[in-house]
Known about the structure:
The chain is of the alpha/beta class. It has 18 helices and 15 strands.
Amino acid sequence: MIIEVDMYSAIRTRFIDGESIRSIAKSLKISRPTVTKYCEGSTHPDVRKVYQRQPDVITDAIKSFILSCFKEDEQENLKKQKHTAKRIYDRLVSERDFTGSYSTVRRAVRNLKSERTVPPQSSVPLSYAPGEAVQIDWGEATVYIDGHKTKLYTFCGRLCYSCDIFVQVYKAANLESFLEAQQLMFDFFGGTPRRLIFDNAKVAVKEGFGIYAKPQDRYLSFSSHYAFSLDFCNPASGNEKGLVENLVGYSRRNFLVPVPRVADMEELNRKLWSDCINYREKHKVEHRQNPVNVMYQEEVKFLNAIPKYRFDTSKTAIAKVDDFSTIRYEKNNYSVPTNYLRKDVTIKGYANSIGILHEGTVITTYSRQYGSGKTEYRLEHYIDLLERKPRSVSNARPVKETLTQELLHWGSQLPGGNKEMVKLLRLCVDYGEERILAIKRLIPSRVVPTVDMVRTYLNEPVKSSVIYLKNEIGIIQTDLKKYDEKYGVANQ
């Protein structure tokens, strides 16, 4: 019979008031053993005895046999040839004349395995010395750049002693971004740690994993320059870099919510840099004795100095300028000035930009394009050619893809035709399209525009040729009487 709380209360109250067990049992219509069990309060109805039933057929000898099967598997170390519960049961039947059921053996195998196995969720508490290590990892986030919804990759780094953080975003998680992000991270922290902890991503590892991982040649060169050792985690072992794993989620929830709307990547990265500074100055990590800033000030003294030479993190390539005055880099094309036609140029691809050089001199730079099949034109690269070939102006891609429809439509109305349009383009190159459009809006709609008219607005006349002095020049009065007396001039 199940004793509810009200029944238990009645038993205890009547017994304390001196009523006998027989009388309590009779009036409450329950057995005397039940009243005897609860009357003195030595137990409680909510207490249930833990059910532990050990089948009689699983003797110590059977347990020893099962454990010996486990030991054989460990010695052979063959992943696909291990004892299953069914195989152990079959061996018990054939070798030990076992008469129990398979389910009994299966339960015993499961229990014995759990006693020998450390749960995968178990973690060892770790501590780090100041300047000893930094953990890094990649995450993902979505933002709006110039109104377009864009997926970006967040690079996160965290010093293991102070928990100071570093977060920046990149268009791709490639080697160039990977190296550039770490270089900026060292700048932010004010030094380099002695060890860097990362997973087995292909951007860093060319083969192997964990302690057997072999780093990419360029990454090995980078780590040698900044004098830190590489410590790669085992596969699917996020717990080995738990500090930065937490940072990936924290930065996404706290720095990128609500979803940022920015003009460009540089604006977003400036915001994230500021967020990291604010975190350093104001945050305190749970279970840490001191705030982040206090511990960071201790740790920065132990970081190694950043080398004077700044490691070139770009991916460099050599390309020949084609007959359309463009070069190809990573499946996309970029224009260069036409005077470099058919010449070899050097392309340096950085995380979010590319630089194009000729004989060591930068001739142009671009925001780096990802994907394939895109071409970036600059009007200034083709203006000299257009002045030689003005008939091509109406169909020229560098014109159609770089200027607004407003200016193109206005240029088509010029009375001088293609030549006049090219002259207008030259003014756009020299003064900027926005200024030319501002002049266009000043000209009355009834007036037929010309390039000379635009030039008159550009060449603003001098307001006045008169030079005004702040103070009059002082004149000293001279007495001329002595000169009159000397030369005999008569006084009138």
